[in-house]
Every structure is written in structure tokens, then in C-alpha cells.
Amino acid sequence: MIKKKLNYIGMGRGIKMNIYHAIIKDLEGVSKLFNLYRMFYQQPSDLEGAKTYIKKRLASRDSVILVVKDKQGYVGFTQLYPTFSSISMKRVWILNDLYVDAEARNQGVGEMLLDKAKEFAAETGAKSISLSTAPDNYSAQRLYERNGYVRDSHFYQYELGLP
């Protein structure tokens, strides 16, 4: 997995915020945000399950988690999963999760996460970043479109649920 270090200090809410690759010491903070993210999508709270899931991602390095912290604690994260495009023969990152704590919203945290995800993807030679969001998540749609993401009108997505 990619081991590129990323550290950035930006301003949000008028205070310094650190953006960096999550490591195992961030497990508690990231897991809490991940649990809140899942609850946003109508999943029941499961903090222990969230910890187990995030710990596995960090240990196996099969995803990249960017986390934002300020002096009060963890305020946002995004999780990227690698895949590849057979057509372009290049890496593609799937931005699967992006969550900003309710108290930190509308302060630029989401934009900071998207900027760093874009920078990271470019540094790894990726062709693109893809994502999906709920049809009724208008604030996320505005955020993505403001940051250059374009809604795909060429392909349909399908999913096969497995037992």
C-alpha cells in the first residue's frame, strides 16, 4: 500500500487544523467519526464494530484515511480505497467516506479533505477520484461540484448483494 506521508496545517473555524494520514494511534477518534458517518446513513450506532473495521483498514493498509484534527480533537475524515481502470490502465481512488463533525461543518473542513485527497491521488499517479453520495445529500453534492467533481451521465452503477 502507498506509504506517502501527508501533513498539512490549514485554517478552519479560525484555528489551526492538522490534516494527515491516520495511524493506529488515531483509532479512537477516527472510529467515533466513522460511527457518526454510518449513523448519518441510517445505520445503527456500533462503535465497537467501527473500531474493528477501522483497525483492520489501518493494519492491512487497504485504504487511506485522511483525518483532520484541531486543538479540540477530531473534526473530519475521508477514506479512500484503491482500484484500477482497465481502459486507462491507471489507478483510480474511490472516495468512499467523507464526514465532518456537525460542529465543524461550513468551516472549510470538507474542502480541506477534498484538496488533500486530490493532492494524494495526483502524487500516486491516479487517473481520477470517484465517489457517490445519496440523492438527497444536497450539501455534499454542492461541496463536490464546487470542488470540480462532475456527475457521471455516461455509466449506470449496478450492485449485486451477496448472502
UniProtKB/TrEMBL annotation:
Q: Which organism is it from?
A: Sporosarcina newyorkensis 2681
Q: Which GO terms describe its molecular function?
A: acyltransferase activity, transferring groups other than amino-acyl groups
Stated EC number for the protein is 2.3.1.-
List the keywords (alphabetical): Acyltransferase, Transferase
Q: What is this protein called?
A: Acetyltransferase
- Domain N-acetyltransferase, first and last residues per copy: 17-163
* Pfam families with a match to the protein in the record: Acetyltransf_1
Note whether Transferase occurs among the keywords.
yes
PANTHER family annotated for this entry?
AMINOALKYLPHOSPHONATE N-ACETYLTRANSFERASE-RELATED-RELATED
Superkingdom of the source? Bacteria
Name the enzyme's class: transferase
